[in-house]
Amino acid sequence: MGCDPTTICRFIDKYKKTGKTENLPRSGWPSALNDNEKNALINEQELRNTTFRVFPAS
């Protein structure tokens, strides 16, 4: 798999204990963006990376 066996063991243990593989909420400042806003930013950046690439002149 290309992963450290310790990481895999922790992942499996976490799933056995919680039934989930997601991280639990942590204390601290709440996120400034919700999931939809984060996805919109990611999509916009991916579009910019593929659409506006500048190639050097030959």
The largest sheet is: none
Helix content: 40-55%
| Separation, N- and C-terminal Cα atoms | 41 Å
Total discrete domains: 1
Task: Describe the fold and architecture.
There is one protein chain. 0% of the residues are buried. It is built from two helices and no strands. The protein has helices at residues 5-18, 35-51. With 58 residues, the protein is mostly helical. The protein has one domain. The model has no long low-confidence stretch (mean pLDDT 81).
Please describe the structure with a list of short key phrases separated by commas or semicolons.
58 residues, mainly alpha, flat
Briefly characterize the structure:
By secondary structure, this protein is mostly helical.
